[in-house]
């Protein structure tokens, strides 16, 4: 049986693969193999991917910790779905606006941060309960 966190890890990996493909597409189209060559389209694609990676590691680790410590399925799905939605929304807004201000960027970031705060709070609360039980 795949754990709930494993489901969201797999979906996030799929999103990261799609975003990496977008970088490769731009590189092939513009014939630039390294860095961004001063091309905004490559920079935007690279940052959309990098932004997702930067939040994936801590958020998914916190989701896994919550699951391993017995968080309810509804809480894990709420956090996992919200996180995944936030990253897709952010990537869409970031690429659509070419790195400028966009509701997708704003709300994607906000939702991601709320999910992280919930998972951080859960982890610290669980730690405090466990520490007091010992």
Could you give a short account of the major beta sheet? Answer: none
| Strand segment count | 0
Helical content class: over 70%
Shape: elongated
Domain unit count: 1
CATH fold name, please?
Answer: Four Helix Bundle (Hemerythrin (Met), subunit A)
Low-confidence stretches: none
Q: Tell me the fraction of residues in β-strands, as a range.
A: under 5%
What would CATH call the architecture? Answer: Up-down Bundle
User: N-to-C terminal Cα separation, in Å?
Assistant: 31 Å
Write the CATH homologous superfamily.
Answer: Membrane associated eicosanoid/glutathione metabolism-like domain
What is the N-to-C order of secondary-structure elements (H for helix, E for strand)?
HHHH
Class derived from helix and strand content: mainly alpha
Radius of gyration: 17 Å
The DSSP helix count reads 4
The CATH class is identified as Mainly Alpha
């Amino acid at each position: 049986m795949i754990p709930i966190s494993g489901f969201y890890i797999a979906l996030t990996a799929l999103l990261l693969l799609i975003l990496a493909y977008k970088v490769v597409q731009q590189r092939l189209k513009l014939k630039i193999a390294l860095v961004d060559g001063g091309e905004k389209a490559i920079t935007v694609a690279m940052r959309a991917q990098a932004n997702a990676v930067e939040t994936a590691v801590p958020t998914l680790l916190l989701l896994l910790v919550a699951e391993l410590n017995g968080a309810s399925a509804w809480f894990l799905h709420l956090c996992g779905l919200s996180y995944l939605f936030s990253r897709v929304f952010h990537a869409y807004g970031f690429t659509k606006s070419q790195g400028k201000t966009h509701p997708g960027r704003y709300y994607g970031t906000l939702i991601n941060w709320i999910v992280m705060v919930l998972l951080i709070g859960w982890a610290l609360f669980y730690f405090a309960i466990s520490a007091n039980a010992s």
